[in-house]
Each structure stands twice: as structure tokens, then as C-alpha cells.
Amino acid sequence: MNVIESFRVALRGLTNNKMRTSLTMLGIIIGVGVVILVVAIGEGASKRIEDTVNSLGTNLLTVSANRNRVLLNAATSHAASATSTTVSTNNASTYLTLDDAKKIAANFTKTVEAVAPQADSNVQIRTGNVDANTQLIGTNTDYPYVKNVEVASGRFFTQDEVDGSLKVCVVGPTVIQKLTGDSHTDMVGSNIAINRQSFTIVGTLVARGATSFGQDQDDVVLVPVTTALRRVLNRQNIDDALVRCTTPQMMPLAQEQISSFLRNRHHIPPPYPDNDDFRIRSQTDLLATQESVTGTMTMLLSLVAVISLVVGGIGIMNIMLVSVTERTREIGIRKAIGATPNDILMQFLIEAAIISLLGGLIGIAIGVGGSWLLSAIAGWNTIVNATAIIAAVVVSAGVGIFFGIYPASKAAKINPIDALRFE
Predict the structure, then answer these.
(1) What is the pTM of this model?
(2) On the CB side of 230, how many CA atoms lie within 13 Å of its CA?
(3) Which distant-in-sequence residues (6+ apart) come within 8 Å of 102 by Cβ?
(4) pLDDT, tens digit (0-9, with 9 covering 90-100), for 277-291
(5) CA distance 354 to 396
(6) Is 126 helix (H, G, I), strand (E, B) or coil?
(7) How many whole angstroms separate alpha carbon 418 and alpha carbon 422?
(8) Which residue, among 127, 125, 103, 133, has the nearest Cα to 115 in the 3D structure?
(9) What are phi and psi of 333, to 5 degrees?
(10) Under DSSP, is residue 90 helix (H, G, I), strand (E, B) or coil?
(11) Staple partner for 380: which of 113, 184, 374, 402, CB 3.0–4.6 Å?
């Protein structure tokens, strides 16, 4: 009996038990569908992270104050064997200052193109009888260039306003939405209260949406950094400095220069970087970290889906064993009229392969459809990977054949005389 005839016989055997065949496919359908969906979500998340990082520029360094630094106390000469204790550095000299940021920009012009200091805090804003909470960022005039921020209407504050610590601000669309109920309201020239101090809105920002972490980038008020430190936050230290390097290739050198400069300026003793009271991170480091997290989650969820495929394969094997038992007399009759053990083996292997392959195709349709629904309805960024689809088809067919081998071989070994006597 040729393959075509074996396929026809196998298909007839499956259609005679449609409900059983459908239930047997269920595990494969779920497993393949989940694999496609999880990979699509993971690919979409990775692409969104990459786009977010690239939108800030691949040549961006973030120098942050490391407030949780722990130093080892130096042992005195007459107590060298004493155990060292840990102390937290809370003095202002170990934090980043506005002067630190200015000197980084001035000292390393070959590697550093611009520096935007950031002093941020949650603040209360109010206009009329409406109040809300938002994030305040004190920065300088280089901020739009460093962060690729665009002004939608009005203007950004000037260097004279930074030098004079004037009460001017630039607001994001979400802030306008909170205060007026409409993000398109023109508030340029209006006054708002920030922590009960009156500020004049000189400009509004172009909407940027949420970050890869889900943080709203439009829920922000930008003010001159000197105004933030002296009038709003009442402190001398900035939280971090965004450093835009001249080229991506200059980033390692810039990072080394800034590290040495801050260690000398802050009088930090070795060992390095353990004692550093600052941290320097690049956009590529952030991208690698986020992609690692996304990849790990995708792998774990895919593992769950693979387990579902294995369970589905075991289901196929169980049902095929039941089918072999129920069709023992049929097997005996076929052998009696000339069917060889290979013919029987091929028939049941084809049945198992059809179940798993058809289940895989249905699972692919569900996974692709689910990805589309998540993108269209929930707004998730999903990317269906063609490689995942091909792999799902191959794996689903392979699962059917692998778990169908034992039942098929058992059927092929049945003695025709014993089969004909089977009740």
C-alpha cells in the first residue's frame, strides 16, 4: 500500500471520530497558539524598547548620583586588624552638583557635545480650582537637543532665564490635559502654581507617549535647573546629568574621562568603581538590560507553551493507543488481506502527524489572530515572527510523529490471528 492510500485510510479513521480527534488536537492548538503569541509580544516589546532608546540617541550617557554607596572605613595604623564598618555617604560633596555638570561640558569638548543636568521631583500643580500632581524636571537649554524633545507651541526657556532663576516653565500635553481637560488647549502665556509658586508657561512639548516601562513622558513640567534647585526643591544637588557624546565611538572614552574627573573632584579613594559615588550608564547598556529582561520573560513563557505541546503530544499518544485497541480487529483484517506491518505503522503515524499538524495550523491561526487583536484593541506592540511560525509547524508535526511512534509500532506488531479473535 502506497503513502497516498495510507493517508486516505488514516484520514477516514480520524473523521470517524471527529470529537475525539478535535479534543486530541486541543493541547497542540493551545501550545502552538501560545508560542506564537508570546514570541510576538516579546518581539514587539524588544522593538519598542529599541525604538525608545534610539529616540534618545545611541550616544547618550547618564551620570547619576549613587546615594546608596557604601564605603569601607580605613583602618588606623594602630588598629590594622580591626574590622571595617560601613557608612552611608549623605554629605553633599559626594552628590552630583550643577557645577559638576557644567565642568563636564567645559572640560571634554572633544568627546562631549552637550550636557543636560536634571533635578526632578513630584510636585503639585494648580490652575484656578483644578490641581494635579506631575513630575518636575529642572534642566538647562541643552535639554531639547540632548533628549530629542520638540516644542509644539511657544518656546523653550532661554539661558538668561536659567541664569536669573526665573519662574518660567514648559509643560507636556498630559499636564495640559490634567489642568484643562483637553491636551490641545493653548496655555502659552498662562500662569500655573507649582508647589504654590506662580510660574508662567512659555511653551508646550510635542507628545512623546509612554516609555518602554509604561511611564508617561508627557506628564512633565520643565523649569530652569537653577529655579528648581533654589526656589522649588531647596537643595544644591542634581539627580543626574545627561551627556550627549560627539559620536557613539567616543562614548567609552567620554565615560572614562568623566569617571576620572568625578573621582578627583569628589576625592574618592580606591578601589574603583566600588567607592564611586556616581554611576554612568549608556543607552546601549540600558537597551541590553531591558532586552535581557524581555528575553528571559519570553523564554519562560515559551517554556510553559512547550510544556503544553508535550502534554498535547502525550494526549495524542494516549488517544492513539485507545484507537489501536478499538481497531484491533480492523488491523487483523487488513493484515489478513495482505497489509504489511510497515503499512500499519505508516497508517497510524500518518494519523498522529495529521492530528498534530492540523492542530499546529489552527494554533498558528489563533496565535496570529490573538497578536492582531492585542495590537488593534489593547494597543500592544506585537510582531509576528515568521521563524516562530515555521518552527511551530515543524515542532507540532514532530511532536505528533514522536508520540505516535509507540502506538503505531504496537499496532504493526499485532499478530493477525490474535487480532481477528479480539472481542
Answers:
(1) 0.61
(2) 11
(3) 115
(4) 899 988 767 666 666
(5) 10
(6) strand
(7) 6
(8) 103
(9) -65, -45
(10) coil
(11) 374
